[in-house]
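Figure 2 data, in text form.
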Amino acid sequence: MIRAYHVVFGAYGFWLPNDPRGSWSEFVRSWELVCFGKAAKVSTRRSLAADPHDRQLRGAAKGELKYPVVQFTGPQALAIAQGFRRGMDESAYVLHACSILSEHVHLVVARHARKVEQIIGHMKGRASQQLTKEGIHPLASHGKPDGTYPSPWADGCWKVYLNDDRQVANAIRYVQENPIHEGKPRQQWSFVTPYNV
């Protein structure tokens, strides 16, 4: 029985559908990206981030995106956290771990009546609203005629279903240690609820 989800979702441009290391995408929607290859669909549950790949090819593909690649600053990460808190308060989501990094987010989310994809869509939406409210949306210079901004998030998310206490504990540890791998301190968010076995 599913107890929680380990979810990873990226900022715009973080992990392209045809990333040489693989992705969870089944097709490439952007014509500018198609020339860099088809979607590289994989089904592995392990992280592919450290796998060797053609960095030059990946960089060239990112250069063809419609908007600049998003990299969140510290103040933007704090705004994202405030957006997450709002989403949690609205729908009683429980997070057991959270790391907001410059290019992507890791969460361990307790099972909920909503599908995990709906939860992540809600959290991304509230985070985007908070970035706009604080005047620090990373794509504010690319505003649309209707006054809105492009999403700072990549489509979709990568998720692993966690079915027992050991899997949940391992995912929490992974999320907590993720900033350390990027040379940053661990993150402690007041809205994270410890997982009790």
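Caption note: The longest helix spans residues 74-91.
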